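One example copied in:
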Amino acid sequence: MHSVVKDTFYDGKLSFEEFKAYFADGILTTDELHYFSQHLGEYLDVLSALEKLNVAVLKAMDKTKEEYQGSSVLGQFVTRFMLRETSSQLLSLQMSLQCAMEAVEVQSSTTPSFIFIRVQFLLAEGCSPVSAFI
C-alpha cells in the first residue's frame, strides 16, 4: 500500500514542498497548509511509525524474494506464516481505521436519517457500537 502523497525524492520522507504540491488544488492557502502541517498532533507519531513500518516490511519482502527458494521447508513455512500474520495484522488495523473514519463522518453529519443509516452500515461492517459513536 502506498501513500497517496507522492514522495518525489523517493527518500521515504515527505518534504513540505511535496506536501504543498499534493494539496495544490487551491482549497488551502500556503499559510493554511503550514498550519495544517504544524498541527498533526498524535498523527505525526503515527505517520512516522507507518513510514518505519513500510521500510521494514519492504526490506523483509526483499530478503524473502532473495532467500525463499533456497530456504528449507521449515524456513519457507515460517516465511509464509510471517507474511500471512503481517498481512492479517495490517488488515485488522485498516478495518479499525476505516471504522473510525466512518464514525467521524457520521459525527460530522447533521442529517438524522444519514446518521441512522451510517450507524447501521458501521455495525453491519463489523465496527463496534462504540466506534460508531466516536
